[in-house]
UniProtKB/TrEMBL annotation:
Catalysis performed (reactions): [GlcNAc-(1->4)-Mur2Ac(oyl-L-Ala-gamma-D-Glu-L-Lys-D-Ala-D-Ala)](n)-di-trans,octa-cis-undecaprenyl diphosphate + beta-D-GlcNAc-(1->4)-Mur2Ac(oyl-L-Ala-gamma-D-Glu-L-Lys-D-Ala-D-Ala)-di-trans,octa-cis-undecaprenyl diphosphate = [GlcNAc-(1->4)-Mur2Ac(oyl-L-Ala-gamma-D-Glu-L-Lys-D-Ala-D-Ala)](n+1)-di-trans,octa-cis-undecaprenyl diphosphate + di-trans,octa-cis-undecaprenyl diphosphate + H(+)
UniProt entry tagged with the keyword Cell inner membrane: yes
HAMAP family membership: PGT_MtgA
Protein localization: Cell membrane
Species for this entry: Prevotella amnii DNF00058
Free-text function comment from the UniProt entry: Peptidoglycan polymerase that catalyzes glycan chain elongation from lipid-linked precursors.
Keywords: Cell inner membrane, Cell membrane, Cell shape, Cell wall biogenesis/degradation, Glycosyltransferase, Membrane, Peptidoglycan synthesis, Transferase, Transmembrane, Transmembrane helix
Protein name: Biosynthetic peptidoglycan transglycosylase
Record domain Glycosyl transferase family: where: 55-219
Gene: mtgA
Length: 229
């Protein structure tokens, strides 16, 4: 009986392993049109008796303003082009700050980690999910280019209530296409990313404008995102 259970367990683990590899390979080439985060937000809206809001349109990286990758790198992950998915300096700094502060814990997630979480996993803070996040981060860093990671990130990240990706936020908050976003628009969008359902790029307050200016200053020291060869 135990041998049979172990055999089934190994089979399930093997199938999950193969399917995870396959999904990463497929998403290397195929647009990500729906994510677990979008699904969970839809369930939240239904549970709260709200109308379902889901705005998302996939666009290629070349159809996105060149300032948008620069803005999110400046805001979220300044060593994105140089690490392999995990920024150990940022993790160490976050750990030190969390030990010495009673405020909300600060994370050290990279753009690669956020992409892995948004595309392949559910939301939460369990050790199982964090372990799977590390696993999928390793996979996409191994199988995808930095350009592909950035493209998927900018198309899948939550940027407002029911708004996912830069094309949707460009249309709904600025009335333009993603490629026409200005440098300040991109900095303002990036300023909301720690909590895009609390902070709005459509109707920003003084704090958002302050963050936008800080990000714009950081953008001066970051080169335009390189094209894939």
């Amino acid at each position: 009986m135990i041998k049979k259970i172990l055999k089934i367990f190994r089979l399930v683990v093997g199938l999950l392993f193969v399917s995870s590899i396959l999904s990463v390979v497929i998403y290397r080439f195929v647009p990500v049109v729906f994510t677990p985060l979008m699904l969970s937000r839809c369930f939240e809206q239904m549970r709260n008796g709200e109308d379902i809001k889901l705005y998302h349109s996939w666009v290629s990286l070349k159809e996105i303003s060149p300032y948008m990758p620069v803005a999110v790198i400046a805001s979220e992950d300044q060593r994105f082009l140089y690490h392999h998915g995990f920024d150990y300096k940022a993790i160490e700094q976050a750990a030190k700050e969390n030990l010495n502060s009673s405020k909300r814990l600060r994370g050290g997630s990279t753009i690669s980690q956020q992409t892995a979480k948004n595309v392949f996993l559910w939301q939460g803070r369990s050790w199982i999910r964090k372990g799977l996040e590390a696993y999928f981060t390793f996979l996409i860093e191994t199988m995808w280019s930095k350009q592909r990671i950035m493209e998927v990130y900018l198309n899948s990240i939550e940027m407002g209530n029911g708004i996912y990706g830069v094309q949707a936020v460009a249309k709904h908050h600025f009335g333009v296409e993603a490629k026409d976003l200005s440098r300040s628009n991109c900095a303002l969008i990036a300023a909301t990313l720690p909590n895009p359902r609390r902070f709005s790029s459509k109707s920003p307050g003084p704090y958002m404008y302050k963050r936008m200016k800080q990000i714009e200053r950081q953008m001066l020291f970051i080169k335009l995102f390189p094209k894939e060869h």
